[in-house]
Amino acid sequence: MSQYNIDEEVEEIAGGEFERQPVPQSKLKSWKSFLGMYAGEHAAGTEFVIGPLFLTTGVSAFDLIVGLLLGNLLAVLSWRFLTAEIAVKYRLTLYYQLEKIVGKKLVIGYNLANGILFCFLAGAMITVSATAVGIPFDMEMPKLTDTMPNGITWVVIVLVIGAVISLIAAKGYETVSKAANYMSPIIVLAFLASGIVALRDLDVNSFSDFWNIWGEGGEPFPGQIKYTFWHVTIWSWFANAAMHVGMSDLSVFRFAKKAGSGWTTAAGMYVGHYMAWIAAALLYAVYLKSPEAQAALAGGNAPNVAPGPLAYNALGIFGAIAVVLAGWTTANPTIYRAGLAFQAIIPKTSTFWVTIIAGSVATLAGLFPAFAMKLLDFVALYGFILAPMGAIIVFEHFYGKKVNIIINYAEKMNVKFNRAVFWAWAISFGLCYFISVTFDVFLSFMTLPAWLLCGTLFLLLSKKNRQTSES
């Protein structure tokens, strides 16, 4: 579920050209250029955490397996019929297309939010790698309920990993991309092998045995909420909300020859967000049968959800290495992207130093296990914050001319801060977040209402803008 573990051929262009103009026909790529990219980018460090976390919510077999099938399908449809459709129409990056509508000053605010959230996600991946690196040092692993660093060994390991990752990311995306492309097959193989080994350890000899691993589910672990079919479905649909309905992947699919390339996202959803999540959940199911986990449950505590030891117990040193690589290949491009977002705010600063700044923020975040241990909640919040901005682009594209608003308002009217956009986002975010907190509504359930409300308010307020400008 990493942000952009992008195919070298595509990223070579995406990172250095056509930032403020449509991609020319001569640079367009076939669907094959996107297939491997999405298969690799969504089998990454986050998957080692998300799979086990599903089990901590007491989810049933049907809710997990069928809910993930449906939720990932909805994500693929969002990429195909929204993101890819708009990307091949205009062939612009998200940032430039947003700038035309919302204005330069408002885009700065978006970049700041994007960059900070990228850093927190990268921090969670540094945490993932640290759980594997700490194994030979007999390091105490972070618990599901931990928020603060649990010892000096943890701090030192996280700081070292963060420093190495930041320095490599600062060398540029070509280095990051090459390494990720080599490592992705190893990580996918590790997930597959983990699932097979876990099935053996769980004495699964038939599909009914597999189905009964979760059975009808159970009570959530301490500090977790109970997940139902709709929790799994909606959460998995919007796990990458910022990328599809939030339009971040306009920057990728602008290189596609046809919108049909959007179907290639299915490789990521069903290799990473289906196979990898279930394989990681199976690893945790094996661990839950151990005396250590049973003792924790008997004492009313949640057993550890540390990816390093889980993979090591199943696959030995190969499993531990796979966790390190998975965290590394997710954190590296995420830090790089955070650096680019920050550079858009402080353009005179070199790419190297803004990336180092981003890496430092990510490393500090990695010291606090809460970002990884609460990854389900964080991913929901991430999509909830950023997705509504994508609705601005979607609603203008599909409905802008029908309701007679000024297309690309900020560009045509020479406006640096489109108030219609700001208030559409602020009202939709504020109202839906208030409902979530006040009435204890699962935050992912509010992402679609916030997205729809933001788009609708944008059209209404933009129409008022036009009337005001004409009067």
Describe this structure in words.
This protein has 21 helices and no strands. It has 471 residues and is mainly α. The chain has a single domain (8-376), classed as Hydantoin permease (Orthogonal Bundle). Helix 7 crosses helix 15 (317-345) and helix 7 runs antiparallel to helix 16. The longest helix has 30 residues, at 61-90. The protein is globular, with a radius of gyration of 22 Å. InterPro entries: CodB.
Give me the secondary-structure topology.
Layout: H1 8-14, H2 32-41, H3 45-56, H4 61-90, H5 94-102, H6 104-133, H7 152-170, H8 173-201, H9 207-211, H10 229-237, H11 250-253, H12 265-288, H13 291-298, H14 307-315, H15 317-345, H16 351-366, H17 370-373, H18 375-399, H19 409-412, H20 419-438, H21 447-470
Helix pairs in contact: 2-8, 2-12, 3-6, 3-12, 4-10, 4-12, 5-6, 6-7, 6-14, 6-15, 6-16, 6-18, 7-15, 7-16, 8-12, 8-15, 12-14, 14-15, 15-16, 18-20, 18-21, 20-21
Total beta strands:
0
Residue-averaged pLDDT, rounded? 86
CATH architecture: Orthogonal Bundle
Secondary-structure element string: HHHHHHHHHHHHHHHHHHHHH
Poorly predicted segments: 1-16
Question: Which structural class is indicated by helix and strand composition?
Answer: mainly alpha
CATH class value: Mainly Alpha
Overall radius of gyration: 22 Å
Shape, principal axes of CA atoms: globular
- Main sheet, how many strands, which sense, barrel? none
DSSP summary: helix tally: 21
Might you state the CATH topology name?
Hydantoin permease
InterPro entries: CodB (IPR030191)
Keywords: Membrane, Transmembrane, Transmembrane helix
Transmembrane segments: 64-88, 108-132, 152-170, 182-199, 234-255, 267-287, 310-331, 352-372, 378-399, 420-436, 442-461
Protein name: Purine-cytosine permease
